[in-house]
Structure formats: C-alpha cells, structure tokens
C-alpha cells in the first residue's frame, strides 16, 4: 500500500492548510470555513493542479527515494 509522505503543512492564509506529498506531488488542502458555518473540508489537487474528485485519500503513485530498500551500491 502506497501512502503519501507529507511535507510540513503551510498556511498560505487562515482559510487553508496545504500539505504536499514528497513522493507524488499531490496537494492535500484543508479548507477552513470562511463564513463561520459548517466544517473544514479537504481538497486533493494533483501535481498538474487539477482537483481530484474524491472524498477519500487518493493512492500515492510516487516513488519514495528516501525509503530504505535494503539495496546498496546503486
Ligand atoms: Zn503521494
């Protein structure tokens, strides 16, 4: 199972928290409610800037260069 590896979250505004996956480049954007009603929601944006239409975490299809593989000498 491929899991995203998130960078440290950034807060470009008080209304959103953005995390980028180091492996596949997907952005996980938490939208904080701007009108004081409802709940925050999450948008997934792929590396091309296209919003992924899902309410579930998309699979990570990136490679993990930092993942120890037990292979030496490459
Ligand atoms: Zn990923």
What does this structure look like?
This protein is elongated. Helix content is 0%, strand content 28%. Strand 4 and strand 5 form a beta hairpin. It has 74 residues and is an all-beta fold. The chain has a five-stranded antiparallel β-sheet, with no helix packed on it. It has a domain at 10-52. The structure holds zinc ion. Zinc ion (ZN) binds at residues 4, 21, 23-24, 26, 60, 62.
Features:
74 residues; mainly beta; 5-stranded antiparallel sheet; 28% strand; elongated; binds zinc ion
Largest sheet: 5 strands, antiparallel
Counting helices, strands and paired strands, the structural category is mainly beta
> What ligands does this structure carry?
zinc ion
Rg measurement, Å: 15 Å
Could you estimate the helical fraction of the residues in percent? under 10%
Which strand order spans the largest sheet, edge to edge or round the barrel? 1-2-3-4-5
First and last CA, distance: 24 Å
Q: What's the pLDDT, averaged over the residues?
A: 84
| Unreliable parts | none
List the helices and strands and how they pair.
Layout: E1 10-13, E2 16-20, E3 27-31, E4 41-45, E5 51-52
The protein binds zinc ion.
Structure summary:
The protein is mainly beta. The chain has no helices and five strands. The radius of gyration is 15 Å and the shape is elongated.
